[in-house]
Amino acid sequence: MIFLTWExxxxxxxxxxxxxxxxxxxxxxxxxxxxxVGVGVGFIHSWLAEGRGTFVYQGGVEDSATAEISRSxxxxxxxxxxxxxxxxxxxx
Length: 92
Hints:
Largest sheet: 2 strands, antiparallel
Helix content: 40-55%
Order of helices and strands: HHEEH
Shape: globular
Low-confidence stretches: 1-6
CATH topology of the domain at 27-79: Malate Synthase G, Chain: A, Domain 4
CATH superfamily of the domain at 27-79: Malate synthase, domain III
Distance between the termini: 40 Å
Strand content: 5-15%
């Protein structure tokens, strides 16, 4: 069965009761930003310099999926104009 975009949105609304995604109240932290950027840079280094698709970062094995999640989270912070970090200059 093929769903059109509006049908998927309607189905999500029925399941969750929320008509559109909303931003969380937590905001951006320096630790989150540092982690996301570290995963992105680490993956690029691992892929280009070492020819591997995985790498160890902060005790965990990361791969392209984690790098994509990290990239998209930073992109969402920029797009949604998320708040600044506390006690550090990292206004996004």
